[in-house]
Design brief:
Distance between the termini: 16 Å
Number of strands: 0
Largest sheet: none
Radius of gyration: 20 Å
Shape: globular
Number of domains: 1
Number of helices: 11
Strand content: under 5%
Oligomer: single chain
Helix content: over 70%
Length: 298
């Protein structure tokens, strides 16, 4: 690997880290609602579900726990992990691109972009899994009076104490099922839309609109594909025990909760996906511009 290639990957790493923190701050309240909806118990016969939808869930969280304490519960873990997760995502995407390029300036086909995106998903799994294990356990807890975990660090300590290091990586298989194809679609959607929208404006008057729109829709495309496996992942990571055969869990969910359960909280997911990923890509592109100015590619 040449010096220029290493420098470009370092830029991806830095820009990905910066954009990750910004994305977490914007998206965490919506993510809290998503996990609450995904992990709420099945209502008994004649009982109403705990939450009728995303808006009802958000309202009840705020009433019961307060705005910041409720919607930003567990935010310390994703803020701390958002840096390495997004850094790993964009770094792995850079690796995926370079593996298919002869020169750094080579333009990838959309098939190659999709492959690079899948490599990004694969490279992110080992960083994402422990972070989401902690986040899901904290978010899934009902009111503050019944809290088992005081925060992200306390949750991590208790997982390590009771389950060992293996407990932090509970759900790795289903996280891989979610991340690899969805990440391919994520970057494919972004690159295709950005290129298409950029053609509408001249290079001299290039605005951030193509990046914002493409980033937002890329996030929506990602979650449209990823949500069914994310539902299973949330169950695997929050339920006790280790016997979580994915096929059996899938058939059990379909049998007892119906096929639509795989898109429970979909509205909250999409509402979160657009602004979060618009911010992520905008921050990434702006940071890359600064880095390219400071360390120009020759």
């Amino acid at each position: 690997m040449s010096k220029e290639e290493i420098i470009e990957l370092a830029k991806d790493l830095i820009a990905g880290a910066v954009s990750g923190v910004c994305g977490v701050i914007v998206g965490h309240p919506f993510d809290t609602i998503k996990v609450k909806l995904q992990t709420m118990p099945i209502p008994g016969e004649g009982e109403a579900p705990r939450y009728s939808g995303s808006f009802d869930c958000g309202r009840k969280i705020i009433v019961r726990e307060g705005f910041f304490k409720g919607l930003f519960k567990g935010v310390s873990a994703p803020i701390l992990s958002g840096t390495p997760i997004n850094a790993a995502c964009f770094f792995s995407y850079g690796v995926g691109k370079q593996l298919q390029q002869t020169n750094l300036d080579d333009k990838l086909t959309y098939t190659q972009v999709f492959i690079a995106g899948m490599i990004s998903g694969l490279g992110s799994v080992l960083v994402i899994t422990p972070s989401e294990r902690v986040k899901c356990l904290i978010q899934a807890e009902e009111g503050s009076s019944h809290r088992k975990y005081k925060g992200a660090f306390d949750c991590t300590f208790k997982i390590l104490k009771t389950e060992g290091l293996k407990g932090m990586f509970k759900g790795t298989a289903i996280t891989s099922v979610r991340e690899i194809p969805a990440s391919g679609l994520y970057f494919l959607t972004y690159e295709w839309l950005k290129n298409h929208l950029s053609k509408e404006s001249s290079k001299e008057h290039q605005s951030s609109i193509p990046v914002i729109v493409a980033g937002g829709f890329a996030g929506m495309a990602y979650w449209t594909l990823a949500l069914p496996s994310d539902i299973i992942k949330s169950r695997v990571q929050t339920e006790p025990g280790n016997d979580h055969r994915l096929l059996r869990m899938f058939t059990s969910l379909v049998k007892y909760e119906g096929i639509l359960t795989f898109y429970r909280g979909f509205d909250a997911v999409l509402i979160r996906a657009f602004p979060t990923n618009a911010i992520i890509f905008l921050t990434y592109e702006l940071t890359m511009k600064c880095l390219n100015f400071l360390f120009p590619h020759v």
